[in-house]
Protein 1
Amino acid sequence: MPSSHVSYRKIHKELEGLVLETFGLWDENRVAFRWRHYLPNHTCRVRSMCIELGKCEGGDLTELEFAGTLHDITKPYDGVILRDKNGERAVDENGFWGNEVLMPARNNIVTELYDKYNLYGSIHHISGAFIAGKILEKYELGREFIDDVCSIIRAHVKPLNLTSDELDRAYAKVENQIIYDADTIDANLGYVAFFRNVHIHAHRAIQRGTFDMKEYVDSIQKWVKWSRNIAANLFTKSGREIAERRQERKQHLCKELIAEEGDFGLNMQYGMLGVIDYLVSQTAAPNLTEELNYLQNRWIPQRRRWIEEGNCPLGCGAARQSLSWVIGFCRTIKAECHGKE
C-alpha cells in the first residue's frame, strides 16, 4: 500500500500536467476522429464520469481518478486508420483497428519511454498502461495501487475475442468496468457525442466542398439508430442508466432538428440549427469548452436581447421557444462534461 504521507492530490496534479504536455507534443491539427483539443477535453470528461460512476458503484475513486487522467496518454501515437485491399478498416487478431504510427514533433518522458521499450504498433490501452506504470513507479504509491491503475487503463478498450471466462476475469474489478463504460459513453452518447458528430461530419463535408444543413440533419437519424444498443452492452447499472438517458436525448434531439427545419430561417437564428451553424464555423479547430462558453456567454445573451427589444421579424414567441431549447441543451451538455446526466 502507498505510504501514509503520500499526497495523492499533488501527484495527480503533476500527472495531469504531464498528460496535457504530452498531448501537445504533436503538431497535427486533425487525425482520424479526433482533433487538437479533443483528447484533453475527452480525458477530463472520462475522469469525471469515472468518479461519478465510482460513487454509485463503490469503486476506488483515487484509482479511478488516476486511471481516467492517464488512460489515453499514448493515444496521440495513433495516426491514420489503416485500410485493407478492399478499403475496409484493417483489424488485428483481437479485432482492433490498425493505425499508422504518428511520431511526435517534440519529446518528453512519455515519448522517451515509448521509444525505449519499443511500443510502436501496440494498441494505446496496452502501451498507455505500460507507460503509466513506469511513470507511477517514480512515486511512493505502492505496487498494488500502481498495478490496479494500470489494470483499469488496459480495460478502457475491450478485446473483442475474449472468451466469457476471460472477459469475467478482465472485468472482475468494478473499476475496470467503470472506465470502459465511461469511455464508451463519452464518445458515443448524449450531447457531448453530438458535438463530436457535428465536427466529424462537418470536417468531411467541408473537405468535399461544403456543409449542407439538411443533409446533416437527415444523417442524424442513422447515427441515433446505430448507437441504440450501446447501453445494453455496458457493464455497470449506473453506466447503463446514464447511457439510456443520453440515448433518449439523442433521439429527442433528432426529432427537434427535423421539426426545426419547418421554420428554417427562425431556427438558424434562434434554435439548434443556429447552434450547429456556429459549431460548423469552428470546425477548423474545435474546442468544446470554448464553444460552450461562447454559446452561454455570447450567443444566448445576444438573442435574449433581440427578443427583449422585439427584434424578431419571424415572431418573438417562436424565437423564445427555440432559444429555450438551446438554453436547455447548453445546461445539459455542461452537466455531461462533469460526468452527470
Note: The chain has a mean pLDDT of 94.
Protein 2
Amino acid sequence: MSGHSKWSQIKRQKGANDAKRGAMFTKVGREIAVAARAGGADPDGNFRLRLAIEKARSVNMPADTIKRAIERASGGADGEQFEEIAYEGYGPGGVAIFVEAATDNRNRTAAEIRSIFTKNGGQLAGSGSVAWQFEPRGLVTVNLNGQDADEVALTAIDAGADDVDTDVEPLEIFTEPGELERVRRSLEGAGVSIDSAETTVVPKTTVELDDSKARQALRLVEQLEDLEDVQRVTANFDIPEEVFAEVTA
C-alpha cells in the first residue's frame, strides 16, 4: 500500500488547500445533491447521503448550506440534477487516471477534461480503458490522538476490515464497500475517533515515475481537480521521495 499511502497524503494536502479556497463546498454540495437524488433526503435511510453530510461537516460547511443542498436535490423535476460520469485516461509515463465527475452538462465536462489531459502530456481514453486497474474500497481514516496504532488496527480487523495501513497518519483502514458502515460503527462503538469514512477507488498496482514525469503528472491531476465538475481523481503513479517532500511540505 506504499504507493497508495503517498497518494493519500498528497490528496490530504491538496484537500486542505481546496478547503481554504472554498472549493470543497461546491464539490461536497454536489455530492450531497447526487446522493439525495439517488437515495432520498433522509440520511438515516441513505448511507451515501450520510457519508456526504459527514464530509461536508468535516470541511465546516454550515448546517443551513447542507440543508439547502438536500432540499434542492430532492425538489422533484425542479431540483438540481447532476449526472455522475467516470472518465478514464493516461497521463505522463503511461500512468492510469480515473476521474469521477458530477455534472449538469456532460459535453462541457468532457471537453474540459480532454483539454487538460492533452495540455499535460496525457490522453483521454475510452470507457473501460483503465478502470480495471482500480478497485472499489471503503476507506476509514483515524486520527490516533495518542491511541496505539496496532491496537486500533486489531480492533478494525476484528470489526471486519480487510487491511490497515499503520505507517501513515491518519491511519487508513480499508474495507469492502458494503462493509464500510458496519466497520465504521464498530470502531466508533469501541471508542475509536473516526476522522473520515468514504467509498473510494484505489490502484491495484502503482507505476514509478521519474522527477520530471512525476511533476507533470501531479500538475495534470491538480488541474483536473480544479474543475468544478470533478469530484475525485485517482491515479496509479508513485513518485520519488524528493518530489513527494515538495508536495507535502
Note: The radius of gyration is 18 Å.
